Amino acid sequence: MMKNYFIKCFHYIIIIEMRVRVCWRFVKVVAIAVLVFTVPSLFCRLTFSKRHSQTGPLPAEDQRILSPKTYRYIFNQPAVCKNHTPFLVLLVPVAPAQEEAREVVRRTWGASGEDCLTLFFIGVSNRGRPQRLLEENRAHGDIIQMDFQDSYQNLTIKTMMMMNWLSVYCSHASYAMKVDADIFVNVFRLVKHLRSSPRHSFITGSVISDGVPRRDSSSKWYVSKQQYPEDTFPWYVSGAGYVFSTDLAARISWASTHVHMIPLEDVYVGLCLQVLGVRPVYSRTLIPFRNLFEIQHLEYDRCTFAKLIILSRHGCVVSPMRLIPL
């Protein structure tokens, strides 16, 4: 009998030890996950320089290129938020001739319910057909056009005009998203994610922490030493698609009066955030560990795609139209 008693005790000890080991492994996994999530953020907070904010505003001539007073509206939608406050405003930069891209967005993720508002921002181009654009705007009432030249090099101008428009005409919205027309947005997943996100000084997307300027003059992303003398960029979010609380729109517009323009609009927004002392945050899931703003290549998988917020058309093997049923 005593033998059976000791055997039972031995078994209990083994079971308890196994459970302790399992619990300890779980604690270690959680600790590692916490470190993965927090250490980069803490490092960013400790090293986030405000050197640009120590300087005064740019000379008036340098401010002029990004000032909304420099440009005039050809089409505007000043009343879209007057009697309705959207939870999320989707700001889509497109070229005047990209009529098909605008229509695809309208028929897919751009039509995501009363809580969301989708607007297209364009400049002017020699390739545009003003009459077609006029008719399109009359039919949909979602085009905002200003009289700067629409080009890749002027994306920073377009982005700052978007920020200004948001701060002037739709500042009561909770969040805004700058997103390219060739990106698929899982708006339902995004809205769910934002319900528990901060409402102030918040910006998230695919965070780039190791950006460096390209000095090769033949590169599409060339930045000269004169334009940007530093050897590294501050943390910024990929311009493919990023989300921010709308209070940042006016503050980024203000910060632009302290930062010399560079033609990389997403990096430029990062420089403005540096002036404000605001750092972009990661949007990731813990289990499985995944970036919700995916701009890398992914094979098509319905379940995986349904859990992400954005997908690049160039980063997956299917067209946006195939992703509609998610």
Automatic annotation (TrEMBL):
Signal sequence extent: none
Entry GO CC: Golgi membrane
Top-level enzyme category: transferase
Membrane topology note: Single-pass type II membrane protein
InterPro entries assigned: Glyco_trans_31
One biological process term in Gene Ontology: lipid metabolic process
EC number(s) stated in the UniProt entry for this protein: 2.4.1.-
Gene Ontology MF: a single term: N-acetyl-beta-D-glucosaminide beta-(1,3)-galactosyltransferase activity
Sorted UniProt keywords: Glycosyltransferase, Golgi apparatus, Membrane, Signal-anchor, Transferase, Transmembrane, Transmembrane helix
Pfam families xref list: Galactosyl_T (PF01762)
Entry's localization field: Golgi apparatus membrane
Superkingdom of origin: Eukaryota
Predominant subcellular localization, coarse grouping: Golgi
Transmembrane feature ranges: 22-43
Family: Belongs to the glycosyltransferase 31 family.
Protein name stated in the entry: Hexosyltransferase
Organism for this UniProt entry: Takifugu rubripes
Gene behind the chain: LOC101074038
